[in-house]
What does this fold into?
Amino acid sequence: MTGARTLDRSRLARLMAAEMAAFEQANPRSKALFERAKGSLLDGVPMNWMVKWAGPFPLFVESASGAHFTDVDGHEYVDFCLGDTGAMAGHGAEATIRAVERQMRRGITHMLPTEDAIVSGDELRRRFGLRYWQFTITATDANRFAIRLAREVTGRPKILVHNHNYHGSVDETFAVIGPDGAVVKRRGNIGAPVEPTLTTRVVEINDLEALGRELAHGDVSAVLMEPALTNVGIVLPDPGYHEGVRELTRRHGTLLINDETHTICAGPGGYTGAHGLSPDMLTIGKTIGGGIPAGAYGFTEELAERFRASVPWDDCDAGGIGGTLAGNALSLAAIRATLTEVLTDEAFARMIPLGARWAAGVDGVLRADDVPWHVTQLGARAEYHFMPDRPRNGAEQWAHGDAELERFLHLWAMNRGVLMTPFHNMALMSPATTEADVDLHTEVFGEAVEALFGD
Ligand SMILES: Cc1ncc(COP(=O)(O)O)c(C=O)c1O
It folds into this structure.
């Protein structure tokens, strides 16, 4: 390949039109189901995010197993999206299915504990080091409850988040740094209940000076952060960043909450375990139930004492924390099996090298073709960025987003049997993913790059 490494937009548009036509032609059954779905589902999808897939309509799934799924038109795919982490344990992991089937016949939910809750709590404690655990249905709920508890015990009204974070549909987190440096609603914040300036302070990841300045106001109950950003694109922390965060949060009496919902990809104990971090609280969801809805939050012994002292537990059934289905027997059976038999230490020892192989494959294509893009690995997850070096913060990554290019690359991959996460360019490895799966992505990605930039 010689010559142009800059993107030719008209060439991209031509390639995109051809891929759209190929997708429509190859997927008549998905298309027919999509048309039918419009009869009762808004925009033909059961959940609004599903309009974000790269094609003119989403693929309808026939079945999924391990790291693969088959659509209703009979095409098989390698799944690197894995339900955006919900299926990181692989689709239908045997041990989870066994435990869930057994529990379904013994009571799905009774608002009473089962022994699985103890084993799950013990295992989360072993992995993340936090003393006490409570369970939820989703990671969103875990974050909501953690924030409420933090506000309650500190008596402070605000939280602080990273710019371009995502922590689920948590009102306080839908804030970004605006063009003049002030906190503003993030784009697309639907029906915001209050102005985010009332609830939220925002700083860039890797900006300790800004963090110190914002915490010095004395009104921040907790910093809620992913230890590495994953939802705008992977942005890694600088060396020393987490030590600085911990020191500043302690100095200002602010609690530190690590959201490990995605960064669990860094190892069995997530980024927190892999790097010896010591947050006051930790939240997680998605994958821990192997696909069965489940979330959890953990906290230190010291914080447990503060909760007991300030939370009126007599009124806890209507106190804004918990829920009748939270901690249900089915979720707990799924968590126990998934953590102790599927997403094990040994599984991570296989998955992380696959993340490295995926990143090396993409990097090899970029180097060989002199394309000025960058690839980042975070354990079992990897991602390419449309920029020559790694992003240092959320704004930098956001500024290099390219929806048109991203859509094309995802559609190209889908038309060749590879599913990427529909947001930015992220791929996730499961215990069932193989080297051959990874190499298929490298091949397909190489062809896409050649089509875009080749002679
Ligand atoms: C870091 C992080 N936390 C929390 C959530 C919320 O997860 P859920 O939508 O399953 O509640 C997400 C979802 O993408 C996430 O990425």
About this structure: The chain has a mean pLDDT of 96. The pocket of pyridoxal-5'-phosphate is lined by residues 84, 138-140, 143, 166-168, 226, 231, 259, 261-262, 285-286 (CB under 6 Å). The CA atoms of residues 13 and 37 lie 29 Å apart.
